[in-house]
Amino acid sequence: MNEQLHLNVALLKRSVPNLTSAARAVGLRPATVSNLCTGKIPVGRAEVKTLVALANLANCTLDDLIIRGNAVKMIETGIKVLDVFAPLVQGGTIGFVARAQMGQQVLVAELFYRLKEQGFTSIFYQTTENHEVVTDIRESVDFVGNSMDDVVTFISKVEDKDKILLASERSAIESGDIYETKDRLQTIGVTSITTMLFDPSGEAVDEEDPFGPLDTLWSFDMDLVARRIYPGVNPISSTSILLEDALLDTNHLTIQRRARKFLRRYREIRFLVNAIGLDKIHEADVHHFNRGARLEAFLSQAFYIAEPVTGKPGEYVSLHDSLHSIQAILDGAADSIEVDQLLYIGKL
């Protein structure tokens, strides 16, 4: 991959507190600025006058505004729905959007556990007195910090600074602590921290942009959770810049897009089935519904940290096996398998 260009969003937000209003005041479309910040519009495709205007707003040079980094890389988690539909960006910012009690803290803890096996050092930045949150993830985390000083001091002693996983609650964004922490870490040469942001209160669901610019968004689905299909991450609304900017191999992109389109139609038919019954819809839709139900069930996964509760052994499914299995299901290879038999299995 070629060198990637990104806006220095932390600098922009620090220099221009109300970026949307400021952008509009100088003739920039807020949507364009937002898409540049989130990576939906690559910096390389932005008009020069737009970048110049942003640099003027931030009172900085273009070199300060644009970060020239290495190729964006994916961290394989072995969790099917994440790796295929919304890959984790190494060194990026990941946002969890979920109501309370939908399993987002369990997913944080599971990622800590899995990535520790890959040599990552995990840190939880505790910004509130919500000890229940810490309890959920304490067994999987390497360090819990109660202040920026704690976090920066600990990270400065970590040997492999390219493999640092930092998680925090949404309040760290609202206070600006995360941006300040990253700025301080840059001064000691730490520039590639993978940051996970979640909101235990569930209020993030009601906000348009609850965490600011993100590289990966994991949106949880109430319907999946209600039917106990975990991890409950919505494969349609969740996304990653790795997919949006087509930074993955062609096979991954092709299967992911095909599966997402298939699941989108399946959900439409599911609403219809719930309303009028399976026997009253067209035969082609029945066929699509049945295959979609199998794909949806396959995307469930047993977690290692949940073994004592569920009794199901944790499963790691490689990206290769996930893609191969999903393609097989879409092609009809699982049509003879009962839906329940596909729940919480590994590869097909």
Write a brief structural summary.
The protein has 3 domains: 4-69, 434 Repressor (Amino-terminal Domain), CATH 1.10.260; 92-214, Cobalt-precorrin-4 Transmethylase, domain 1, CATH 3.40.1010; 250-342, Bovine Mitochondrial F1-atpase, Atp Synthase Beta Chain, Chain D, domain 3 (Bovine Mitochondrial F1-ATPase, ATP Synthase Beta Chain, Chain D, domain3, Orthogonal Bundle).
Computed Rg: 21 Å
**Total beta strands:** 11
Helix proportion range: 40-55%
Largest sheet entry: 7 strands, mixed
Task: Tell me the count of domains.
Answer: 3
The first-to-last residue Cα distance is 31 Å
User: For the record, what CATH class of the largest domain applies?
Assistant: Alpha Beta
Task: Flag low-confidence runs.
Answer: none
Portion in strands: 5-15%
Please report the number of helical segments.
18
Mean pLDDT across every amino acid position: 89
Structural class: alpha/beta
State the shape.
Answer: globular
The strand line-up of the biggest sheet is 7-6-8-9-5-10-11
Order of helices and strands: EHHHHHEEHEEHEHEHEHHEEHEHHHHHH
CATH architecture of the largest domain: 3-Layer(aba) Sandwich
Keywords:
3 domains; 11 strands; 434 Repressor (Amino-terminal Domain); Cobalt-precorrin-4 Transmethylase, domain 1; two-stranded antiparallel ribbon
Overview of the structural elements:
- This protein is an alpha/beta fold and 348 residues long.
- The protein folds into three domains: 4-69, 434 Repressor (Amino-terminal Domain) (Orthogonal Bundle); 92-214, Cobalt-precorrin-4 Transmethylase, domain 1 (3-Layer(aba) Sandwich), CATH 3.40.1010; 250-342, Bovine Mitochondrial F1-atpase, Atp Synthase Beta Chain, Chain D, domain 3 (Bovine Mitochondrial F1-ATPase, ATP Synthase Beta Chain, Chain D, domain3, Orthogonal Bundle).
- The chain is built from 18 helices and eleven strands.
- The strands form three sheets. Strands 7-6-8-9-5-10-11 form a seven-stranded mixed beta sheet, with helices on both faces. It has a two-stranded antiparallel sheet with strand order 1-2. Strands 3-4 form a two-stranded antiparallel sheet.
- Helix 14 (250-276) crosses helix 17.
- The protein is globular and about 65 Å long.
- The chain starts with a strand and ends in a 6-residue tail after the last helix.
- The model has no long low-confidence stretch (mean pLDDT 89).
